[in-house]
Amino acid sequence: MTPDQIDAGALLQNLQAGVVVHAPDTTILYANPKALQLLRLTQEQIVGKNAFDPEWRFLDTHCQTLPIEEYPVNRVLQNNEAFDAMTVGVVDSQHAQTTWLMVNAYPEHDQYGDIKQIVVSFMDITHEKKDIPFEEIVAFASDAVIVTEATPLTEDGPRIVYVNNAFTDITGYTPEEVIGKTPRLLQGPQMEADTKSRIHNSLLQGEPSREEILNYSKAGTPYWLDLNIVPLRNSFGDITYFAAVERDITEQKQLALALKDLAESDPLTQLKNRRGFSEIAQSLLFTALKDKQEITFALIDIDFFKAVNDTYGHDIGDEVLISLAKIMSDHFRNNDLIARFGGEEFAVLLPDTGLEQAELRLNQLREKVAEEVMTRSQDKEITITISVGLSHKMADHDNINSMIKRADQALYQAKHSGRNLVCIMERTDC
């Protein structure tokens, strides 16, 4: 059968979709039986009415009255183009219930390109709306909701088609600023590549994804999210959208980081403690081994520190420790890792630094410490000296504990060779 052989009149009469034809002034010229059924009107009641008829009222998806300019026929007239999948509620003065319709509309043009009529078709989706206002619930939920298209799954990600009010509250972006763009808009320099990769792979496989991610607001403020992405499928099982529910966990994350920092920091000197040092040091050593770089470790001990505590008290001893920590922080590079291991013992890990260079740096520190007044007690200047043990990575399978052990042996050698010395485990002299 060819299109010419189809009886258009019979098709419209039996079509299970409502069809209404408007003149350019929005006057209704024709409505098929299904349209009459859905609108609860007769042909005589509908023909001749227009979009401005006060008996008609359209609702948006939030059950708010739709502005007249947003009526389907008026949208076509304003934009001179078709649209589809618009959800509207229809109310008339004779009936209390609302009929929910999925509306498509398109213009038909004459030979001069002017609109000669507008065809509006619609399907009844009232049963899909049920009695639960899901869209209102989502719109006013406390968690941010983002809905994106399912494709294309490029590096930038699929395009955003919907955001709720909470999204605006968290990000500062209005729906108009983000719809049509991708979630990449919210990412920044500290967004972890591994996290992005896991999310991308989950989307490719059509699987849910849950991650904690760092995003950035419109103002550039970082915030943490508990992100839960689920695929949305149509009646054929095809993924048509991805919905992301985002809970702001910035406060919880900051608290966790603060507790972690507290657990890994020395409260007296504000340096890393041994636990915090070990976690970072192993990563720095791994990088050095991978990139075949030199890396050196120094273990530092205050000479005769017990005598300071015994003579002047622990408060003065604490002031000495704080002063030494300040000198070390000023002396070493930003990428050097400094820690207080406990008592009067300190440690420094020097990435991209060979033994000779490290020995020079530690001797400079030793000399500087010996010259400085750490604190005063009863008009007496308190000075100290330090002993240092050095070690460096021995092989590709070396680890930080092995380096610490060798540096401790070198430190023992420095103490027993007269103190105020820098010794290297791999050498017999200081």
Structure description:
With 430 residues, this protein is an alpha+beta fold. It has three domains: 3-128, Beta-Lactamase (2-Layer Sandwich), CATH 3.30.450.20; 134-249, PAS domain (Beta-Lactamase), CATH 3.30.450; 264-424, 2-Layer Sandwich (Alpha-Beta Plaits). The protein is 35% helix and 28% strand. The protein has helices at 8-14, 33-39, 43-46, 72-79, 126-129, 134-139, 165-171, 175-178, 193-204, 250-263, 274-290, 305-312, 314-331, 355-371, 400-415; strands spanning 18-22, 28-31, 56-59, 83-92, 99-109, 115-124, 144-149, 160-163, 209-216, 222-233, 239-248, 295-302, 337-342, 345-351, 375-377, 380-382, 386-392, 422-424. The chain has a six-stranded antiparallel β-sheet. Strands 8-7-11-10-9 form a five-stranded antiparallel β-sheet, sandwiched between helices. Strands 13-14-12-17-18 form a five-stranded mixed β-sheet, with helices on both faces. Helix 12 (305-312) packs across helix 13. The radius of gyration is 37 Å and the shape is rod-shaped. It starts with 7 loop residues before the first helix and ends in a 6-residue tail after the last strand.
Q: Please, what is the average pLDDT?
A: 87
In total, the number of strands is 18
Strand content: 25-35%
Largest sheet: 6 strands, antiparallel
Please tally the helical runs, counting DSSP H or I stretches of 4 or more residues: 15
CATH overall fold name of the largest domain: Alpha-Beta Plaits
